[in-house]
Specification:
Elements (H helix, E strand, L loop, with lengths): L24 E5 L3 E9 L6 E10 L5 E2 L2 E2 L2 H15 L3 E6 L5 E7 L7 H7 L1 H4 L7 E10 L6 E9 H13 L3 E7 H9 L7 E7 L4 E7 L2 E6 L10 H20 L12 E7 L6 H8 L5 E4 L18 H4 L3 H7 L9
Parallel strand pairs: 1-6, 6-10, 11-14, 14-15
Antiparallel strand pairs: 1-2, 2-3, 4-5, 7-9, 8-9, 11-12, 12-13
Helix pairs in contact: 5-9, 6-7
Length: 335
């Protein structure tokens, strides 16, 4: 049996909790670019407005399918952010396509035992050993009658996480915590308190993320390598339509232990640079029976529309992950 003592979650790598107050910066690294936002927090409360935003193209081949393949070429991109904005601490993304995400139920355990209970089932659900992985989890629901705890678990190879930590440290920036891209985007574009099932479609140049969010937690994710910027757009469009149909079919036909259908996807939210391609989006969403809309990435930053920053709507669609990194998600605590 693999010992659990000392096994790390996404947050265990990082500084003590007091450091969480020192930054409102988010950095999202993708295959094609690095996006940066710095939000300004209200003196009282948890509302934000945009202070700075920037985006830099990554050197070709520096990041491939989420893997850092040439950190030496990527370090200057981060160092430039450090030099311009004085970024010392940041929240950052980890690559969606290198992660494993699953949901499961766990018998009642005391709060301090939940992490170990999740660790015990890692190897049953993903093709990576506990010793070579880093995991984190969110409590989705707690059944007060059966005492069963539903959790969504994210797992990445330790080597992938370490490569991102080393990259930031080499640039002189300390990562406070990491989120998967899907988790960060959900924090930005799903309204707090909206527990319905949503499908987020993150349209990028080389890939598209399909993320199902229910109970304000990402519970399903897939990232096919079809986008809106390379290759045969018509072929990619048809492939994406097929992938989206699979997501709807999978999620909308789930049943509970009593063979009762669970909640279906009620809404689709589109974001990412590719969401600006109106013709592509219209063809992609043709035939979809549920409502779809473009993401409001400022949805959870402020209750006052007058405080929405001066940045174009089309441009904002590509910053959902960087913005979501900074925002807090208040979940019912497991007790």
């Amino acid at each position: 049996m693999t010992p659990l003592v000392g096994h790390k979650t996404f947050l265990d790598f990082f500084p003590a909790p007091e450091f969480l107050l020192l930054s409102t910066a988010g950095i999202a690294i993708t295959d094609v670019d690095t996006k940066f936002v710095q939000l300004k927090r209200d003196l009282f409360g948890n509302k934000f407005k945009l202070a700075h935003s920037n985006k830099a193209s990554n050197p070709a081949g520096a990041v491939e399918a989420g893997l850092i393949s040439n950190s030496a070429e990527l370090i200057p991109v981060l160092k430039k952010l450090y030099a311009i904005y004085g970024v010392r601490y940041t929240y950052a993304t980890l690559p969606e396509e290198k992660s494993y995400l699953f949901t499961t139920t766990i018998d009642q355990v005391p709060p301090e035992g939940l992490k170990d209970a999740v660790a015990f089932i890692i190897e049953e659900n993903v093709p990576v050993s506990l010793a070579e992985s880093v995991f984190d989890f969110e409590v989705v629901t707690v059944d007060r009658e059966t005492k069963l705890i539903k959790v969504a678990v994210s797992v990445l190879p330790k080597s992938v996480v370490n490569s991102y930590i080393e990259l930031f440290e080499a640039a002189g920036i300390i990562p406070i915590s990491f989120d998967l891209e899907s988790q960060a985007i959900a924090k930005a574009v799903i309204h707090r308190g909206d527990k319905r099932a949503h499908l987020i479609v993150n349209l990028s140049i080389r890939k598209t993320g399909f993320y199902v969010v229910e109970e304000e937690v990402v519970q399903f994710s897939t990232t096919p390598a079809y986008g809106v910027g390379v290759g045969d757009l018509q072929s990619d469009l048809e492939d994406l339509k097929a992938e989206m149909h699979k997501v709807f079919s999978f999620w909308n036909t789930r049943t509970d232990k009593l063979s009762k259908l669970e909640n279906k996807i009620e809404k689709v939210t589109l974001c990412g640079l590719g969401a600006n391609n109106q013709d592509f989006v219209e063809r992609l969403m043709s035939g979809v029976e549920v409502k779809y809309e473009f993401a409001n990435v400022w949805l959870n930053t402020s209750s006052s529309r007058s405080r929405i920053p001066e940045i174009s709507f089309n441009e904002s669609l590509d910053y959902a992950s960087a913005i979501g990194l900074v925002l807090s998600r208040y979940k019912e605590k497991y007790v």
